[in-house]
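The passage that follows is intended for readers who have already worked through the single-chain material. We present the inputs for a multi-component assembly, then the predicted structure in tokenized form, and finally a short commentary. You are encouraged to pause after the input and sketch how you expect the pieces to fit together before reading on.
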Amino acid sequence: MIELKNSTKIYELNRVDKVVALNDISLSIKEGEVVVLKGASGSGKSSILSLIAALSKPTSGEVIVDGKKISKLSDNFASVYRRDNIGFVFQKYNLIPSLSVRDNILLPLVPLNPDAKDAEEKLALVMDMFHIAHKADAIVKNLSGGEQQRVAIARANINNPKIILADEPTANLDEKLSLSFIEIVKSLKALNKTIVIATHDPLFFNLDFVDSVVEIHNGIIS
Amino acid sequence: MILSPEVLTLFILNALFSFFATIAFILSVKIFLKWDTDSTCQAQYRLEKQSFLTATIIKYIFIIKVPLFLFFIFTLDKISGLLTGAMCAAGVVNATTYGTYLVLLKILNLYLFAYWLALHNEDMKHEHQPYTKIKFGIYIALFFLLISEIILEGVMFKAIDIEKVVDCCGAIYSSSAGSYISVIFRVKASLLLTLFYGNFLLITILYFLKNKYIFALSNAFFIIISLITLISFFGTYIYQLPTHHCPFCFLQKDYYYVGYFIYVFLFIGTFYGLLTGLLRTSENEISKNYKISLLFNFLYVIFLTSYPVLFYIKNGVWL
Amino acid sequence: MKNKINIYLIEFAINAILRQKYKSLFVSIVFILLTFLLTSVFFITNSIKYELNSTVDALPEIVIQKTEAGRQQNIDVAEVDKILAVKGVSDAIARVWGYYYFENAGVNFSIVGVDKFENQYKSSLAKIVDTFDLGEADSPLMAIGKGVHAIMQKNYYKEYFNFIKSDGTLKKVTIAGVFDADTQLESNDMIVISKETFREIFNMPQTKATDIVIKVANSSEIATVVSKLRLMYPNSSIVTKESLKVSYQNIFNYKSGLFLALFIISLFTFFIVIYDKVSGLSSEEKREVGILKAIGWRVDDVLREKFYESFIISFFSYIVGVGLAMAFVYIFQAPVLRDIFVGYSELKPSFELPFVFDIQTLFLVFFLSVPIYIAAIIFPSWRVATLEADEVIR
Ligand SMILES: Nc1ncnc2c1ncn2[C@@H]1O[C@H](COP(=O)(O)OP(=O)(O)OP(=O)(O)O)[C@@H](O)[C@H]1O
Ligand SMILES: [Mg+2]
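Having made your guess, compare it with the prediction:
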């Protein structure tokens, strides 16, 4: 399903300074698997998620998803690929703070010029699924961290993607909310979604439904 | 030289177009020479970004050009009030040697820009962007046509002499005129009408046969025969005057601006008709183009036919 | 067809405009100012053009005035018979008229003397003579235009007016009534009195007149008549309606030409100001676009959204600008701005700008504002739409 082949990611800060974020990484994830990327801060976890989401391109090597070389997609088609395949729950959620919950969740549908009825159905479905329906008209910036995260998860799922990526999902949550997030992951796995979670939260390391834990160290899988 | 606010507005927009079109031209040349979908180097990413800018500029120019063309005709109509002898835009077009070429060039450019957009839309649907090199290549040629149009427009307005007496459309579009236009009056109306309706019938049949190349070709003919019959036959019924043939007067208020509808129908109908043969795209898209083409050509035919028919019902005679 | 309007995108665009409150407000105000100014100027010039054209149309074909050393002198009434003898002339009428400076109000009235038993040289005058009684030599009456009426009222001349004669004594003339002429420019400063009264006030002898107007039955003969008159009166100025029209138009074109030069400058400024404002992207905006691209918006989608935004702003500002201009010109009579166009308004009683609605003006203003605005946002929109999502949302 997801395959990184000898991928290297180098950020050029300026002409002289470079950061090697990922160094010749190869990784393979099968459909329906839950994979946890584990590693210290700065080890390259987010960079891997970016590559899988086609948000950035590898400096060398390739990324293949569903048999398609996404590391070669043009800007437009990378977006189309994300729209159709990826639900990304970002580290900082990346919601638009002054919009309401429903408007935020609907954002991925907007450019598709959806039918009002169709859009409302999809919206109701994900809002129920992630328990945020009661806040539908609230403005996002007034919500608590846990609620914001549920909005982000609902938005990631509105297009019913095959792949869910989550970056440090429990970094801003207390233990109770973290556990309920784990429940959400479990339910998503039950829907046969492929899930990749980047985290250094030990809560994730001994879960029975996690298929593998991959440890990253300074851009290298160890 | 006429420098009314309308003409000045046209000049200002033309200056704006020239500026943006030149940027798009420079970028197009770069893209045309260096585009390589397989490359993953930085230069290709930059080109990709620039291709968005170029396409946006071209879209912008086209989107403004369409209503501006109507405004251009509107302006000619207005100027005709200042020229002794002219009654409508036809007089102004005929006042200088450049007028006719300018109008023809403008129409040609509209078709070409619309084609460019269709090609661009098709191109953007595919991951490997198969038409990128071609479309920017076409734009390079289109740029020169656009600039010629802009220069010609400037020259034409400069050449208009307010003092000079010009012909009115009645004289230009008459069988006694010495120009190429008079030729169409020598052909029998019945023959022209047979060709006109025959051509439309052919388009309808080809619509069902789905032969796209002949369909496109018959649309090309349809443009010509439509304009000829419009001048020689249908126009007289719009004016209800057997001697008035002008293809501009009915753009005026006195005739409820029907001319704009007539020309828009003809443009859309024939443009999509031509597109079926000139753009390789999905079956779905092609059948959509077929439908739009037939619909608008049909509207054009019905709309024009209604004039003589209604005239006959009301008066019991033909003109 | 699938090309229906995307309501969700419109909603998002409106929200985006409201999010950027100050920027949107600034851009709208600049836009409104421009359309307001352009529309006002076009409305005013249209109205004045209309007035001038109707005034000129009402003028006689040929006017002959005697000049000495370049200054106008009174002409002998006896010349009328000589002129009538010229072939092609159908009528010749001696006119007595002049400007009377009313010091209290600081305006000029144009005073026309008429004789009700003579032919009048234009129909509006004939109508006035038929309607109003102009009295006798010792109890004179006058008909006055609306503008004159207003000024006299202001200066407490409600029933009569005292003219100061050239010898310094007063001549009291009673107001018979107020008339409405075809055009405001014409009627506003006009006073109609009898010829005798006129001669008394202006101290003009019976044998003299101000000028002679000549009618020519066949308009194609005007040129030959004029050349004959030139031979007969080498020292006189002979003015035809056509030449007046051209000189009016020229004054006017010069003025609007000057304004158009100013337009180009203001349009250019408009472009630069908008460009500058729109291209200053806040990190907030960049982040927003980054988010949109990260969740699957294409470059084209972002561009389209930007286009919607600018279309909404320009449409709104255009409507407001044009609406304001309409109120400013036709309801408030364009204070300040009209004086620039009506240079002589200081000396003449003011007139109303007639409502001349020309839809083409609206198109004109549209093409002078919206495309320029959209052109100004092309670069900034493109730059933000092609941002690397990955870099701005981190
Ligand atoms: N856009 C960028 N420009 C320059 N350097 C970057 C960029 N993005 C990431 N890096 C660098 O690449 C390295 C890996 O970053 P990455 O975000 O993948 O780490 P991470 O494992 O997600 O860390 P954290 O747990 O803090 O999120 C870091 O050293 C980081 O500074
Ligand atoms: Mg990270």
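Commentary: The CA atoms of residues 235 and 311 of chain B lie 12 Å apart. Chain B touches chain A through eight residues (CB under 8 Å). How closely did your sketch match?
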